Structures are given as structure tokens and as C-alpha cells.
Amino acid sequence: MTIRNAAIIVAAGRGQRIGGEIPKQYLSVGGEPVLRRTVRIFLENPDINLVQVVIHPDDLDLYEHAVGDLDLPIPVFGGDTRQQSVLKGLEAIDIHMPEYVYIHDAARPFLSQQILNSLIREVSHCGAVIPALKVTDTIKYMSGDNIDNTLNRDFLFRAQTPQAFRYKAIFMAHRRFEKSDLTDDSAIAEKSGIKVRIIPGSEDNFKITTENDLKKAEMMTGNSYTDVRIGYGIDVHAFEDGDHVILGGIKIPYDKSLKGHSDADVALHAITDAILGAIAMGDIGDHFPPSDDQWKGATSDIFLKHAAKLVDEKDGVIASIDLTIICEAPKIAPHREMIRDRISEMIDLDIDRISVKATTTEKLGFTGKGEGIMAQAVATIRLPE
Ligand code: MG
């Protein structure tokens, strides 16, 4: 079946200009991965029939996490350069024989529907069109250490994406100049003699490249997570015969165990309830009824991860967790760092946002008499307004 309009989203770059291990197209902006924002723009346009993403082979997990639930064909693996990646994308959509193709950088998540619609309209008239902006700074041409020349900026434009072409023409041009290393598709078109028009681009349609761009992007989403919620959780489990307790996901040798339906990890239960409390989504028992046999003997990281996922679904972030474990024994201090580390890993939260404290009750009450362990936790959650 042939289609009219296909988009190729180029997301195979490594984005090394912004520090860190995650390529910029997978970083979150306003609680949503950059790639997801970009892809949604195309999916939401009724005239775009297909959205093909090109990714780096190492990024499959990141891709799944970012857009796995959206209606997209399986991603194509890119090549070593942007140009090679685009060619892979063009090859992948060839079976659909699209009439027009819109090649877009994943790191431009603020493309407006207005620009996209203008491109869709224009390309059917002229066959090749890109958004571009006039250069406002005066541009100097250097020769060695000195300025050789001042260019006439009336003729200078900054190219953006998406770049729209007749599919067959740009595919042939890409194949023909496969060995060159050009930084946009218009350059390939120009090289093969295709006349490329421009329409006005937008400053908002910038490419996230630097740390500053990322900050600007965060501000543009208007999402500063100013809706701060506090949740509180408390849990108690009694001791029974045994040889270890599980606290914060860590197995601690002791001459008793904690009694419970699951692994009785009183610490994780308190944190789970604190998180659920902050987003007003009931308690651990609502989500994992003790009457349901499938949670028998379950490890409690399942409960905590579920609560964190609910926060994620609200586009929120966990700002901090403060846990207090109350017992006479076993001693918590030697295991504290491991518990913090373990929780950090479970919910993908910086360790400096996780506090683990312990106290006794001076031999008073059930914790003082060594009948069980209590845990209390406070979670701070930030949600978008
Ligand atoms: Mg419990």
C-alpha cells in the first residue's frame, strides 16, 4: 500500500555535547522524553501517515521506555553519521512507497503544527522545502587569525528541520552521495541538483544541543514541578522464629524474622505508602491485597516500583524519601548505606535524595520489648502544575 506522507525521526546521535550517559533525545523535558515529544507532533498530525524512528543500536531500552507504548513501526538502526542514519530510514520506509518524506531531528521537540502543515502544503508544489531562519548576527569569514571578509547576511539562512522532499528524489540523491558526510538533507538535495525552497522556521524549533538548550526547553514546557506533595507512611511487622529480616531490600542476619504475607519488608512498605499518600492513590493494601495469593512471599521492591511508576504516570518526580526504622535490634547503622543504595536502584532516584535513619524507643512499647519493627517514611513528590 502506498502512502502520501512519511516522517523520519533521526534519533541515532550520541549527543555528546551535553555531558552524561544518556543521549539528549532521551532526556526528559517537562517530565517527558525529548524523543516522545517530537514523535507525538508527527503522530498528532492527521496528514502524516507513518512515523519511522531511526535509533542507535545501544538505545533500544531507552527507545522502549520513551515511546514503546506509541503506535510506531519498529525502529531502524542508524549508521555512523547522520547521513547514513537518514539513508537507513529512507530504506526502511521504501516498502510503503511514500510520496513525500519529512526528515526531522529528534532533538527538536518544539516543532509547531503550523510549520509542519506549511511544509506539507509547500512540498506538493515545489518538491523540496525546508524551514529556515534569517541570520541576524553579522557573519565574519575568517582566514587564519584574521577576518578576511564580512558576508552579506541578506543571503544567509539557518536551516532547520523537518526537511520535506519528494521521497523518490531524496532517496536517489542519498544513495548517489552515500559516501559524502553532509549535515543536512537539503545539502544532499542541492548536490544532486534538486531546487530547495525555504519557508520561515521558528526560534522555538531549536535543536537541543547544549546544557543551556536543555534548560530553555524545560522552561518552554512551563513545567517547573511546582505542585509539591508530601506523603506519609507507617508500617509494623511482628517478629517470628527465623534467622534474618529483610529491610529496605537488604537481608540482615538476625535471630528472628518478620512475619508477613510478603517478605515483610517493613521499610519498603512504609516508603510505598508514603509515595502513594503523596499522590493520594490509596495504600499498599489497595494495590496489592493480602487476600490475593499472588503476593504471597513477594519481594517488596515490586510494591515500591509500582508506586514510583504511578508517580511517573502523573509526570511527577520523587524529590526525597526520609525513612526511619524503629527497633532495638538488629542494628541498622551497618546496613544503612546498602539500604540507601538498594532503594536508589529500585526506583532510579539519586542516593542523596534518600535518607535512612534508625532509632530505638528506649526499650518502651512493642519495639522496645523486641516484639517487632516499625518503619515510618515521608516522601516528597513534585508534580507539574
Ligand atoms: Mg507491611
Write a brief structural summary.
By secondary structure, the chain is α/β, with parallel strands linked by helices. The chain has twelve helices and 19 strands. The chain folds into two domains: 5-220, Alpha-Beta Complex (Spore Coat Polysaccharide Biosynthesis Protein SpsA, Chain A); 227-383, 2-C-methyl-D-erythritol 2,4-cyclodiphosphate synthase (60s Ribosomal Protein L30, Chain: A, 2-Layer Sandwich).
Overview of this protein structure:
The chain has 12 helices and 19 strands. Helix content is 30%, strand content 28%. A hairpin with a 2-residue loop joins β2 and β3. By secondary structure, it is of the alpha/beta class. The longest helix has 14 residues. Strands 1, 4, 5, 6, 7, 10, 11 and 12 form an 8-stranded mixed β-sheet that branches. The mean pLDDT is 94. It is elongated. It has 2 domains: 216 residues, Spore Coat Polysaccharide Biosynthesis Protein SpsA, Chain A (Alpha-Beta Complex), CATH 3.90.550.10; 157 residues, 2-Layer Sandwich (60s Ribosomal Protein L30, Chain: A), CATH 3.30.1330.50. The site of magnesium ion has 5 residues, from β13 and α8.
Topology:
Blueprint: E1 5-11, E2 28-29, E3 32-33, H1 34-43, E4 50-55, H2 60-67, E5 76-77, H3 82-92, E6 100-105, H4 113-126, E7 128-134, E8 140-143, E9 146-150, E10 157-159, E11 163-166, H5 167-176, H6 185-191, E12 197-200, H7 211-220, E13 227-241, E14 244-247, E15 250-253, E16 256-258, H8 266-278, H9 284-287, H10 301-313, E17 317-326, H11 336-347, E18 354-359, H12 365-368, E19 372-383
Helix pairs in contact: 3-5, 5-6, 8-10
